[in-house]
From TrEMBL:
Name of the molecule in the record: YibE/F family protein
Biased composition (Low complexity): 426-436
InterPro entries linked: YibE_F (IPR012507)
This protein's UniProt keywords: Membrane, Transmembrane, Transmembrane helix
Pfam family, one: YibE_F
PANTHER family: MEMBRANE PROTEIN, MEMBRANE PROTEIN-RELATED
Regions that span the bilayer: 27-48, 154-175, 182-202, 208-226, 238-258, 278-296, 337-359, 379-401
Region annotation Disordered: where it falls in the sequence: 426-459
Keyword DNA repair among UniProt keywords: no
Species lineage: Bacteria, Bacillati, Actinomycetota, Actinomycetes, Micrococcales
Amino acid sequence: MGHSHPHTLDGPAPSARMLASRRRANLLLALVLLPVTLATLIGMIVLWPSGDRSHVTVADPYATAPGVTFDVGTVTRVATETCPSSQAAVEAGAEAQDCLVAYTQPDSGGAQVPVEVTPEIAASRGVEAGDTIRYLNLSEVMPEQAGTFVFVDFVRSTPILLLAVLYSVVVVAVARWRGLRAILGLVGAYAVMAMFILPGLVEGKPPLLLGLVGSSVIMVGVLYFAHGFSARTSTALLGTLFGLAVTALLGAWATDAAYLTGVGDEDTYQLVNMSEQISLSGIIMCGLIISGLGVLNDVTITQSSAVWEMYELAPGASVRRLFTGAMRVGRDHIASTVYTIAFAYAGAALPVLILVSLYERPLFDTLTSGELAEEVVRTLVGSVGLVLAIPMTTLVAVLVVKATGLGRPAAADALADGAAEGAAARGAAAEDTGAGVPEPALPSGRRARHRLEAGQEPE
């Protein structure tokens, strides 16, 4: 979501005692997560869509009549001139209408054709020489009439593929194998959406359960696949599932209480006419659950790692001290992610914001209007689930690490015993000579850890 956080800290390799502690932590978490995961899989099996779409009537906007085709070509030149489609009217004595005409070389070969560009495209970006476009070819059904080539859309395959390749290269180059696993996990998440959540909504499955089960499956797969099987990941997963549950329950209430009908744009009207089983309010509810998955995953894995690193630096620190220290990180994370979510949704709804702002309505009326209410509710619901997931993840992580019984590492005990014996010897020598011996200075890392274990602020 536009920001990242270090999830691990460099340090010495874990000792055998630390590894045993982590195994105990994994066992404790498995006792909780296995039943939850099993229930999620059962729910997925029960809710799995049948694939029957006989009740859906789809008017495909790309379907054509016999003899009409969608062709692709490259624009060679552009001119503003009399619209080809108005030639018949001009010949009949009517006034000529000017429009943007893109002379295009078809990819299939043949002579250039004059493609009439729609006014909204001409007024926004326009069409330039070298652009690859898709246009409607009516020449076979209307061979004697001019204006039989009409602009449909740009062909964007090349720039989007280049951006996708660049994104993948950058992620793998910086995050290496973990970055590659994250990308593959993202592909799997979209597969769950395409094969389970979307068909389920079309068939009228319960949207609350559909969104909660589908999102839980996505998070289980993404977290373990990207970050590996560890106590940290399992702790983050528990916090994520808690945040998902809060978001789902709050979203179910807000969808009804805020009267989110989902009939504010053209796409939803098309869905209403396609099938009686499709619930627009259910789609909105499911969207509220899914929309915050990425940020929720980010904050929970960060909090889990923060607790584990603090604990391994100061195993003797109390539960309260570990929780307080980790929540300092969490509060910073809350401050950054709350406005990240808000700005992300504001950017997505920018055209609507501009349009509504031109109506010169009061600010509160604008924010609660049908055009913006869905975005406002999505921001608030997602933020509440996110904020509550942070202390829950932190608390679970602290309780798990303390329950492992690691205590002070053997090396630390030996160092402390050695330091005590040395101090006693120096004290005895000081008594003999009458001179005071200063307290030995500890390395900064060990001194900070000792202060942390004593419940004091690090220097």
